[in-house]
Amino acid sequence: GFSPVLEFDDLDAISQHFLLFRNQSTDENAVVDTSDITQAIGVARLYAYPPDPTIGKIGRVAVIKSSRMGGAGSGLMTALEEEGKRKGFRCLKLHAQIVAKRFYESCGYVCEGDEFDDEGVPLIMMVKFI
């Protein structure tokens, strides 16, 4: 994992933050809050990736382990992509942990460049044209 101190940065202020909630009464996922939604199960952020305002950057994607195989992550990625289109981004980029690379590939992302290290965690840039 990453140090909690490093999880907060200047990009938080310019990012749009996403929360994915589990609807306890229907066991469905939703990105927006309603009175039936009681448990947050995922998070992510989206911002324009300088210096090109037509590129969006996805970051801080996390889904609790118990919700990872039920489509929650792909639902969160779809919401990020829809918002990226609304904002006029032509593509989205993200730094994927190597252990999550296959998940992002299943969402249509492709690797760009070589693996690199961040706090001992191997990552790779991935991109998807939207």
Automatic annotation (TrEMBL):
Residues 1-130 form the N-acetyltransferase domain. It holds the Pfam family Acetyltransf_10. InterPro entries: Acyl_CoA_acyltransferase, GNAT_dom. It comes from the Eukaryota. GO terms for molecular function: acyltransferase activity, transferring groups other than amino-acyl groups. This is N-acetyltransferase domain-containing protein. It comes from Physocladia obscura.
